[in-house]
Design brief:
Rossmann fold; P-loop_NTPase
């Protein structure tokens, strides 16, 4: 969890250019952003506007970016690959449109695993997993594998997994985009409630304006810039 007193993430003049067939495509053209501890921010924009690219930058998931990315007070660009991995593991959680659960592990085990990787003992990790899953209404599904769960239930497991290591910041990329409207509403409500209860910050990329306005702040990504 984040003990740093300043912003959990700070972007300064972040740029990303892709080259395609000899043409330079500026996806991010100078993004400046600060997200404070406990703040839940919506990132609105149509498909192809660069929302996922921006989340990948903050998540330290790929290179090729210009500008400064600071996570919990640590400037990431100069770090080694191993140090970036540690920074990501210690401070960030991820929820994607598709849950990416491990099919051979049950719900509890999917939430236990990232804790074991971070060095947590198995007993406390198991307790933490069951606490989160129960808070998400899955107390009766702890031993079920992903194939035995509905789409909404699988995404709830993914939310629990993202919060398992008490991240300073959760990055969610269209976390309800693969669900029907009613299920999406319920999963998002539970996600927001749990994130707020945990005291984490979150950046949620979505094209759903109705869902976005339930968050603390709404940003729009348009032509590579935040508005």
């Amino acid at each position: 969890m984040n003990d740093h007193q300043g912003p959990v993430v700070k972007l300064v003049n972040l740029k990303r250019t892709f080259h395609q067939g000899g043409v330079a495509i500026e996806v991010l053209r100078g993004i400046n952003l600060e997200i404070n501890p406990g703040e839940i921010v919506a990132l609105l924009g149509p498909s192809g506007s660069g929302k996922s690219t921006m989340l990948q930058a903050i998540g330290l998931l790929e290179g090729g970016f210009e500008g400064k990315i600071e996570i919990a007070g640590t400037e990431a660009s100069a770090l080694s690959s191993d140090a970036r991995t540690t920074l990501r593991r210690d401070h960030l959680g991820f929820v994607y449109q598709f849950h990416h659960l491990l099919p051979d592990f049950n719900a509890t085990e999917n939430v236990v695993l990232p804790q074991l990787i971070a060095g947590q003992a198995k007993g406390p990790a198991n307790d933490r997993a069951q606490e989160l899953l129960t808070a998400l209404g899955l107390g009766h599904r702890l031993d079920h594998r992903p194939s035995q769960l509905s789409g909404g239930e699988q995404q709830r497991v993914a939310v629990a997994r993202a919060l398992a290591n008490r991240p300073a910041l959760v990055l969610a990329d269209e976390p309800t985009g693969n669900l029907d409207e009613g299920t999406a509403d319920r999963v998002l409500e539970e996600f927001l409630r749990l994130v707020r209860g945990e005291g984490s910050a979150a950046l949620v990329a979505t094209h759903n304006e109705r869902l976005a306005f339930r968050m603390d702040r709404v940003l729009r990504l348009h032509e590579g810039l935040l508005a």
